[in-house]
Specification:
This protein is mostly helical. The protein has 20 helices and five strands. A five-stranded parallel β-sheet has the order 2-3-1-4-5.
Length: 422
């Protein structure tokens, strides 16, 4: 890694440590990132970038008071630090008493920041307005943030996504999806919690990971990387015995090297829903949990989050509507062709309405008995490396059910998703 080389060549340069730390965060190597920021702060205790990086690590660890302290200290030394202002809005629910924060954030956002930095701060300003109930101002802030990101992001290719869905439906009919072929693993260790982004997958993972026999691995890139590497074989159902065996062994090694004593390990990568046919052909005994949330709530929540440029379909409501329809078309196919015992669909609204019944049902589905710690999932001390880092550390609440009604005057193309709400 070039950044490691830069640190080695000039270990007294704090910015090199900060850059390496930020890169490690994107790779989900949280402890290594923390060490980088700590080293930078030993060299330069007033370095606002290192302080802000330390704050972002603290957020993912659920240490919101420590994160707030880091962000505030960063702003002492750099009052224009956009990421620090944005971080303060993400560690708690904002109120009308935070008017000083809003005025400062708006001033910084309008100061000529690079588009990516301004977008990040506009998302935070949108969150402020959403928290205090100024929904029109919230939407306009989110809209501005997405336009800034879209200008620098690759275009979402609707035709390409539709063709992929067509190919997977054609390649994995019912007889193929049910078949147990050579090279398949008999392991029940993996649990795939999947669904559209912002549908509640982090909540389900947190419930399971609170069980002493289970662990949450977060969003592993394994299957996305594997499916891309073996693109043609996947789309034409040519996963031979040797390849199945290789992928099974490699994946189990990935899981066991991180959690050697777990009976169940949750992989909650949302994009695994694109590959459920191939995954089932490799792990026919693994359990799959698909989390479904109101489609408009789901898409609007995606629009309100600062995802990476690779998720370019989230930057435009019309693109989101298209992506979601194709996503549902593919998932409905998996539901129709996979063995019923392998897949459990969990409706987010039902889960928050009757949390214990559904939590028990989820645990029973994956072969674990009830444990009272699963009812206190919000107290679990484990890093949460997704945009739901704050929500899963709160007691279960239903204020996000039907949230889209606050924005029904602005949702435009998402209205067409109402026919998918059942």
């Amino acid at each position: 890694m070039p950044l490691r080389r830069a640190v080695k060549l000039n270990p007294a340069h704090p910015e090199s440590h900060v850059s390496l730390g930020l890169t490690l965060m994107t790779l989900r190597r949280l402890e290594e990132a923390r060490e980088c920021f700590e080293k930078a702060l030993k060299i330069a205790p007033r370095n606002s970038g290192a302080l802000c990086g330390a704050g972002q690590v603290a957020i993912l660890d659920g240490q919101f008071e420590a994160a707030t302290a880091h962000f505030k200290r960063a702003l002492v030394f750099d009052t224009q630090h956009a990421a620090a202002w944005a971080g303060l809005a993400r560690v708690r629910k904002m109120t009308s008493a935070d008017g000083d924060w809003l005025r400062s954030a708006e001033k910084v956002a309008s100061s000529g920041l690079p588009p990516v930095q301004e977008a990040d701060l506009r998302f935070a300003i949108g969150k402020y307005h959403d928290d205090v109930g100024n929904f029109e101002k919230a939407f306009r802030s989110y809209e501005r943030a997405n336009r800034l990101q879209k200008a620098a992001a690759p275009n979402y290719d609707r035709g390409r996504w539709t063709r992929y869905v067509d190919d997977m439906i054609r390649a994995y009919p019912r007889d193929a999806a049910f078949a147990t072929e050579g090279g398949a693993s008999d392991s029940a260790l993996p649990v795939f919690v999947t669904g559209m982004m912002r549908s509640g997958t982090s909540l389900v993972e947190q419930i399971i990971a609170s069980h002493p026999a289970a662990r949450g691995a977060g969003e592993l890139p394994f299957w996305t990387d594997a499916m891309r590497k073996h693109h043609d074989a996947v789309r034409n159902r040519r996963l031979d015995q040797a390849l199945r065996n290789k992928l099974a062994e490699s994946y189990l090694h990935t899981l066991r090297s991180a959690f050697p004593d777990a009976a169940r390990i949750v992989d909650k990568a949302t994009f695994n829903s694109d590959y459920l046919g191939p995954i089932h052909s490799i792990f026919p005994n693994a359990r799959i949990i698909y989390v479904r949330r109101d489609p408009i709530d789901t898409c609007l929540s995606c629009y309100f989050q600062p995802f990476s440029a690779g998720h370019s379909f989230t930057l435009d409501l019309a693109d989101l509507a298209h992506y979601y329809r194709e996503h549902r078309r593919l998932v409905d196919h998996w539901r129709a062709v996979l063995p019923p015992a392998s897949l459990l669909e969990v409706h987010y609204a039902d889960l928050v309405e009757d949390r214990e019944r559904w939590s028990r049902r989820i645990l029973d589905f994956i072969g674990l008995g009830w444990d009272d710690r699963c009812a206190e999932f919000h107290t679990a001390t484990r890093p949460v490396l997704t945009s739901s880092f704050w929500q899963v550390r709160q007691k279960m609440y239903n204020s996000s059910v039907g949230r889209w009604r606050n924005y029904q005057g602005f949702i435009g193309p998402l209205r067409g998703l109402r026919d998918l709400q059942t």
